[in-house]
Specification:
It contains 14 helices and no strands. With 297 residues, it is mainly α. The chain has three domains: 63 residues; 90 residues; 88 residues, no CATH class. Helix 6 packs parallel to helix 8 and helix 10 crosses helix 12. The protein is elongated. The termini are far apart.
């Protein structure tokens, strides 16, 4: 019988007979595809970092990874290298050219990012996109939403015509990956909540007696953290008052320390804070020590 395989002339990938038998008996197509992708990279990458190459979401690739682990074809989770931290692999010009040649989706992403940023991307620029896609496993549609988010944020802070640098985009991409934002739905939900937080920022700035100006990026981090802790503008105004009383001016770190202590104590509303801040009555009728009133400061 004639050979039905078409020889492509590319480098070969060897699957052992035992691995093939286990995969066939399992009947899990996703596990088999992930195993082939891992073989293509000589097993030198984490399975979940291949989500971009396979165009899978996190749930799908984690399920395939679990199947391969059950089959004994990849190392136990405890033996795997740690999650990617803050640096992507160094991609060469050939790596970039190969991906652009091989993947129409990646070519389209690169073209759309160029249009969004209003410039021709250099090879190092495209390597940043490749790292987000190939190393972090972010799909192309999520990366484009990420780029749009960064562009809108920069324009809001610095005015029309300003564009984010690729390093800014890369940094935000790592933040998204750590938060598990790797699907269009997850990105849309994150951006919705981000917009809601941004709409509230003027109220927080007024609570801090800073008027109607936009916060600096470092100030915005504090405001976002306080919102995520569950503090409204009124509670922040109370923390501001205590900060000024102690420091005679707004000290962001000191104000943040007050709010963190209230958060740890489960005090978030003005009523809760004032009740928790109030000195406890003493049995002998004597006033409590003065520093009891600053228990959460």
């Amino acid at each position: 019988m004639a050979n039905v395989l078409i020889r492509t002339g590319d480098e070969s990938i060897t699957v052992t007979a035992q691995a093939a038998r286990r995969l066939l008996e399992k009947g899990d197509g996703d596990a088999a595809l992930l195993y082939l992708a891992l073989l293509r990279h000589q097993g030198n990458v984490l399975p979940r970092s291949l989500a971009g190459e396979l165009r899978w979401d996190r749930g799908r690739i984690e399920a395939a990874e679990a199947s391969l682990r059950d089959l004994g074809l990849i190392a136990p989770a405890a033996d795997l290298p740690p999650e990617p931290a803050d640096e992507r692999p160094a991609y060469s010009r050939d790596d970039v050219a190969e991906r652009l040649e091989r993947s129409g989706e990646f070519r389209n992403l690169t073209a759309e990012v160029e249009r969004k940023l209003g410039k021709k991307l250099t090879t190092p620029d495209v390597a940043v996109l490749l790292g987000l896609n190939d190393y972090l496993g972010l799909p192309a549609d999520v990366i484009y939403l990420l780029v749009c988010h960064c562009a809108e944020r920069v324009q809001r802070h610095y005015g029309p015509g300003r564009r984010p640098g690729m390093k800014q985009i890369e940094k935000e991409g790592y933040a998204w990956a750590r938060m598990g934002i790797d699907t269009q739905a997850a990105a849309a939900e994150y951006l919705k909540k981000y917009a809601q937080r941004q709409a509230c920022i003027p109220q927080y700035m007024r609570a801090l007696q800073l008027g109607d100006r936009l916060p600096a990026p470092s100030e915005e981090k504090y405001l976002t953290a306080w919102q995520e802790m569950g503090f409204g503008p009124e509670a922040v105004a109370l923390a501001y008052d205590k900060t000024v009383l102690k420091c005679h001016e707004l000290k962001w770190a000191y104000c943040n320390g007050i709010l963190k202590r209230w958060h740890e104590a489960g005090l978030h509303t003005v009523d809760q804070i004032q009740s928790g801040d109030r000195p406890a009555p003493r049995q002998d009728g004597q006033p409590a020590a003065m520093d009891d009133a600053w228990k959460y400061v």
